[in-house]
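Write out the 3D structure for:
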Amino acid sequence: MEVNVEKEVMHITNNVGCDVVIEATGNPKGINLATKLVRRKGRLCIFSYHPKPVEINVREWDAKGLEIIMTCPARAEDMRRNLRIATRMLFKGVFHMEKLVTHKWKLDEIQEAFEYASKKPKDYIKGVIMP
């Protein structure tokens, strides 16, 4: 049974929407869904890299008065500082890596890892190559 995410979120939030929505799918449909889920005056954080142009309903962004935050690392003012902060957060347990790292390979399986990841399977979030 497929869940209607928009309907569920609106039910949970009494038709208000979320204060902050993080789009990290890498799928153009993810941006459009995230736009529908965020409340008026909310924040839409786009973490994904989208290699191709994406059609976006900017009118809805404007009507809701959204704050759009793009997180491309190339825009970082001080990448070293950001990495230090991220590392501290990682060690404090802010990120639940067991949920993010869905696949692990040994170094001699690296070709298999790249081939698998390039197929973009639905069960794949992040993979790690272990020595």
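The beta strands are 18-23, 38-46, 67-70, 101-106, 126-130.
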